[in-house]
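Researcher: Structure prediction, please.
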Amino acid sequence: MTTQKRIAKPLDQAQSHYTVLVVGSGYGAGVAASRLARAGQQVAVLERGRERLPGEYPNKLADAQGAMQINAKGGRIGEPDALFELHVNDDQYALVGCGLGGTSLINANVALELDKRLLDQAHWPAARHFRTGAIDEGKAAIRQLVIDHPNAMSPGLSFTETMAGHISATGCHHRPCGHVERIRDDYANGEAWGRSEGSACDFRLTVTTDNLHRMLEEKDHRSRITGAVTVSALSPDPLPVREGTFRLLVADPERAESWTMLYDMVLEGPEGPVHFHGFKTLAQRGKSDPWTDLTTLFVTLRTGEDATGELIGRGVLKLGVDEFMRQLTTIEVHDSNSLIGHVVNLIPQARKAIETYFVAKYAGFFAMTTFRAYGGMLATLNDFPAKDAAGLVARALRLPPPERHVVPTADGINIGLTRYRGGPRGPLVLAPGLSVRASSFATPTVEENLAESLVAQGYDVWLFDYRASADSGNDTEHPPEFTIDDIARHDWPAAIRKIRAVTGADSVQAIAHCVGSMSLLMGIGAGWVSGVRSMIASQLTLHPVSNSRARHSAAYPASRCW
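Model: Predicted structure follows.
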């Protein structure tokens, strides 16, 4: 028990007058209050939460359950004076400390390797048992084993998840959900009808992987599921899982920057097997946030062993805060029957270091994928797509040989044109958004890209890289300075003039996106561009409406901040 005295007082004991009032007690406010008090000021510090003395902090995950509060759009979850306070907002998420001391209360520690000079001291027993450098050599050897043989050195991991909700077949008409909406059609209908019908569904499942490294490296990130699912419409007793597969954060091939967590099981039903399919979707869209998406499972149950059986019901299962905190306490790391098992038997002290390394990789994969889904502009700064591309094998494009043209404009800047002769229709010019390569219209990462589709329909396709593109033919190390007016005044006229000269066509058609669209319309409106007989304008036209952040940035350019 600490002998430290409390310094906080309730508001009813406050004096009627102070010369200085400091709001907050973290690093900045705490230091300011201290210096002002030492300078002779009468200082009062106001802080939310309560004062915690040594011994009063949670030191186990189970204890931390009651020390968590979440502030989200739907309101607060947890006690208002709980130590760990997570703010979940549209644009930013923040974890802060609540109590006297502010966020300094929840700082994480930093673990450093043992200073070898400590073992050189005579009073340290280890100095008598190890020759000089032996510990460093041992650590280096184990570290090299992990690097050279991660598959053999990786431990396994398991955790238990509990979710509950309702399902029903009533109101399920197999309608697809809107892209910008939360998933709400059949699943929300099934959940609502299931609640009214008293058709409950819940599960307690254990997800196990025998090898963390292998699971993370595999494309589908598979683990096995054991446990039981209770479906009140089928039986009052839990239905055991005969076989089950969990797939962690699999990239959605149909939607960019979207990942799914998949639960597929065959249950032992009272009248035969039952197929269970569930998914969580991680993607930044209207009314989505990471907490909601990670704790909401959309489920479909059918008779039989696969997804072709008769529909039993659809619905939604939820993971509550209490269940989530309990789930954290169920995480277990175990040694597989491989090299790691032999190493930790010989050197038990190495177990924790090896387990921590691989669990950190698991946590890093989970956290970074979540960041990619919801990090917005901050996530794009990491250029994740370029890192992913390094491991992709590009398919062969179903396009004729490209014809490349670099064309100088009237103001001495280059533009790029790439032609794919698909037939007599067109010519059709495709212009991308600002700083995007026009080759994005011919990407090999989808089954059929736009250029392939248009060529297959007989169009003479021209990809247009105006001066903002890295493929425009200008110096990428020292690109030219320009405005959108320059693209409208010089780039579009030069591009259309070149296409008409090469093809002999009187006019062209255009599909233009974002700044490509706006600049073409600007050129047409100002009379700088002619010879365009039709166009599709995507995203931007002549009246862009920006958000508050962009307007703020325009009002306060970066040059004013330096």
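Model: The CA atoms of residues 497 and 531 lie 8 Å apart.
Researcher: Thanks, that helps.
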